[in-house]
Specification:
Helices cover about 30% and strands about 30% of the residues. Strands 2-3-1-4-5 form a 5-stranded antiparallel beta sheet. The protein has 2 domains: about 150 residues, no CATH class; about 100 residues, Beta Barrel (OB fold (Dihydrolipoamide Acetyltransferase, E2P)), CATH 2.40.50.140. The protein is of the alpha+beta class and about 270 residues long. It has 6 helices and 10 strands.
Length: about 270
């Protein structure tokens, strides 16, 4: 039975020279781009390359273009499937809205997902215009949206350094070689890609505190890295096991979000003087 809370509506309008009608190729390409974006969001949520969720059309109409309503679905019914579907729907609009409002996307959103969002907007421009919405949110897919996605892709930068945190589950699915690291200070989690030579060491450090050395990648407007490409991985001692204050030096290089230490302390201390 259709669920309005998880439905996704795509409204398309053709180019003026086509009298507002959509070309078939543009219509099909837009639907493919929408599905590709949803598959990538689901991949982020379940950390797998293949999605368990499929998508069905629950309404299709034509009025000044085309209006398509789809919803995620699973072969299995039950509370867990319902939670997965709702999570996919909510995360999809969360990321699109963040891009539209020029806010940072989630740490899990990789370039593969961003490129699918970009294609979703580019195909909309080719078709004419497009709006995607649910019962509470609306995202216009236009040149401004495309530009913001391209900025996230083109203007990322890196610095060489380290991160210390707990090493989460390792993903070795297909050609993937990555794990999540959960720092004690700063970002909630950071994706770590590692060389095959570090595979055995990484497996030995699951759920342990580690220090990762490598390139830390940042996106525009972000204070913390979203990814680190590891070249070194070592087990680290937690703060409770540290014997000397000097050993804390460098444990959280991004704690001040790019500010020098004097400016950082000045900003948080009490205004007594």
């Amino acid at each position: 039975m259709p669920n309005p809370d998880t439905q996704i509506t795509l409204e398309l309008r053709g180019m003026p020279q086509e009298g507002g009608h959509l070309r078939l190729n543009d219509f099909l390409a837009q639907l493919h781009a929408l599905r590709e974006s949803l598959v990538n969001v689901n991949r982020i949520l379940v950390h797998l390359s293949e999605a368990r969720i499929y998508y069905r059309v629950v309404d299709l109409s034509r009025a000044d273009g085309a209006r398509v309503v789809i919803e995620p679905a699973t072969q299995e019914e039950g509370p867990e499937s319902s939670r997965d579907i709702q999570a996919l729907h909510d995360r999809f609009f969360q990321e699109l809205t963040a891009i539209r409002e020029d806010r940072p996307v989630s740490e899990e959103v990789d370039n593969r997902a961003l490129e699918s969002f970009q294609r979703l907007a580019v195909r909309a421009e080719h078709a004419g215009s497009a709006i995607i919405h649910n019962t509470t949110a609306k995202v216009i897919l236009d040149q401004e949206f495309t530009t913001r996605v391209r900025t996230l892709l083109d203007r990322e930068y890196f610095s060489v350094g380290s991160l210390t945190g707990e090493l989460g589950t390792i993903n070795l699915h297909g050609r993937a070689r990555n794990f999540w690291i959960y720092p004690e200070i700063g970002p909630t989690k950071v994706l770590c890609r590692f060389d095959p030579s570090l595979k055995e060491k990484a497996k030995q450090c699951i759920e342990k505190l580690v220090t990762v050395q490598g390139r830390k990648w940042y996106r525009p407007n972000a204070n913390f890295p979203y990814r680190i490409d590891a070249v070194e991985l070592d087990e680290a001692r937690g703060a409770l096991g540290t014997k000397h204050l000097l050993e804390l030096r460098g444990i959280a290089p991004d704690a001040t979000a790019g500010k020098d230490s004097v400016a950082f302390i000045r900003g948080i201390r009490d205004e007594w003087d």
